[in-house]
Amino acid sequence: MFTGVVDELGEKIVSDLGGHMTDDVLECTHLITDKIRRTVKFMCAVVRGAYILNCDWLKDSKKQWRFLPEEDYELREDHNNSTSSSTSTSLEDQFNFNLHESLEIARSRSLPLFHDLRLHVMKSVLPPPNEMYQIILCGGGEVVKRMPGSDAGVIIIGVEAKKRTKKQLGLRIMSKEFILTGILQQKLDYKKFLLNQDDITTSTSYNNSCGTRATRGARARKTLMK
Q: What separation in angstroms does the CA of 154 have from each of 80, 137, 173?
């Protein structure tokens, strides 16, 4: 599979050497690209621990008429040189991760990063929900396509909003970086990417207040009955 590059010759080399191309991110074992990207294919490859290789792997493999060992061709930050300048910030620096280390962690996991998580993506999120759902599934998460009416253990991926609807109050709403940066760093930060801490606090306070009033009412009724 390729991302960010079109390489018809590379596709032919894959076929000639006995491999096959795929468009299924859940099936892909090798991703070829020229630099670190945050495309759907790239994020799926990282979360699954697939090989992410530079374009020289296929060129050199053709010369030997066999697929060469992947380790010498793993994508490194210096493959960004063609598009970066001395003042630009690399994606590894920007998102505080090391691709090689993240892939090693992903491959060593006994359970995938999003194991046991149920996630719903709001329509306003970019990448759009259908693409985010591909990434979530690659990470072993469960997709919930309908907005839940209550918490129900579902994490909502949303955007910043000045005001939430009543239906959203009390739900855990995270930014998309909970997913995307989480994959790159191979760790999930529930605090940093939570968007609606105040809403949850307000909702909790309201529910507690209602509970207190209900308890007082029950006590009053018991007193009248005595």
A: 37, 15, 9
Global pTM value: 0.82
Peptide bond into 127 cis (omega under 30): yes
Give 51's strand partners. 30
The label of the residue with tokens 């970066």 reads 84
What residues contact residue 42 under an 8 Å CB cut-off, 6+ apart? 3, 4, 31, 33, 36, 52
Kindly state the tokens that stand for 104: 């090693």
- Token pair, residue 145, equals 């396509």
Looking at the predicted structure, is the pLDDT value of residue 202 above 60? Answer: no
Q: Is residue 8 classed exposed, middle or buried when 0-12, 13-18 and 19+ CB atoms within 10 A define those classes?
A: exposed
CA 97 to CA 99: how far, in whole Å?
Answer: 6
> Quick one: CA dihedral 103, 107, 110, 115, positive or negative?
positive
pLDDT over 70 for what percent of the chain? Answer: 78
Name the one residue in this structure whose structure tokens are 């939570």. Answer: 194
